[in-house]
Hints:
Blueprint: H1 3-27, H2 33-59, H3 69-85, H4 89-110, H5 117-143
Helix pairs in contact: 1-2, 1-3, 1-4, 2-5, 4-5
Protein name: DUF2383 domain-containing protein
Pfam families: DUF2383 (PF09537)
InterPro entries: DUF2383, Ferritin-like, Ferritin-like_SF
Amino acid sequence: MDEPNIKTLNEVLQGEYMAFHAFEDVADKIENPALRNQLYHIQSIHQENILKISKRIEELGGHPRENRGFSGLMADIMLRLDATLHHEPQYILKKLYDGEDKGIAAVEKLIEGDLDQESAQLVQEVLSTDHDNLKHLQHLIRNTTK
């Protein structure tokens, strides 16, 4: 079993769970069906990342932690409450953007240590999709009326 890689990948996995649940928690607050579908699309990308990371953890002999952790739970509660109080799509999109951006920064800092080549490549692919999500959210923010 490759403990250091498994531990790091589980932390990346928790971040993906946080993102997945964040999109799930606020999508129903968006009245515009087209915009809501865009959020579900981004959520599905996080689901794909969850599956890929979980598979890699299992390949290394570990067990994927299938939750978002306490800090993720608290962040989701705050986001859900915030989205309930502020129904404006741009406000919600900006909150999602900020969360995605912070998640990327946390993963980039986390992986400064040593990951095996295959795990490092996987995390880089995940980061690439997360950066694409940021661009997509930026586009939605610019093109969504207040």
